[in-house]
Amino acid sequence: MTETLLIIDDEIQIRRLLEITLTAHGYKIIKAGDGKEGMLVAASHQPSCIILDLGLPDTDGLEVLKKLRTWYQKPIIILSVRNSEEDVIKALDNGANDYLTKPFRTGEMLARIRSALRQNKGDEQATSFVFNDLDIDIVNHIVRRQNKILKLTSTEFNLLALLAKNAGRVLTHQYILKEIWGYSYLEQTQYLRVFVAQLRKKIEEDPSKPRLLITESGIGYRFGN
Q1: Is it the case that residue 122 has pLDDT exceeding 70?
Q2: d(CA 156, CA 154)
Q3: Which of the 8 DSSP states describes residue 143?
Q4: Which end of the chain has the smaller Cβ count within 10 Å, N or C?
Q5: Does domain 4-120 have CATH number 3.30.420.10?
Q6: 45-59 tens-digit pLDDT
Q7: Quick one: fold of 128-223?
């Protein structure tokens, strides 16, 4: 089945470039030049993924993102010239699945889209995850590495499960802290680092060179490649 992608961007050249590139790779493309049109098109066509610019002429793309997330549950990838850490964090905290800056590399864009679409096809409903030699059983709260059961605390398991369910997606410090410990811990990034370090010692072959639990400097963590 052909996946439909919605591009919301006010730059005609970017829309054309993306349409040509993505169509050549088997995607069906629909387009919108501003936020209002984008939301209408998203509602009427129910695309598999939305590529959203933040610098829209009628409303800020972050506001469009927030409104979309009140009803749209599929992947949203931000594509923007804004590249500050603050902009990236705000977008991810408000529901973006990924963030790319302009100018972008076509290969990377395609890889991010494939990753987002894969994640959407059942990761949240899955009861177990396998990453190389790591097996995570969500239902029974069992984690095995090389077929040996690992001893994890309940907090370590909840942290690992959250990251595994969102494999490939960057989760901000604040998002993880809110989901695992609650709103009163939103500023406790050092607290999170301690648990991440403990978890790496148990699941990584070499904790000093993690391949599963990846740090996104200044932003958060990403599970898997």
Answers
A1: no
A2: 5
A3: E
A4: N
A5: no
A6: 889 999 999 999 999
A7: Arc Repressor Mutant, subunit A (1.10.10)
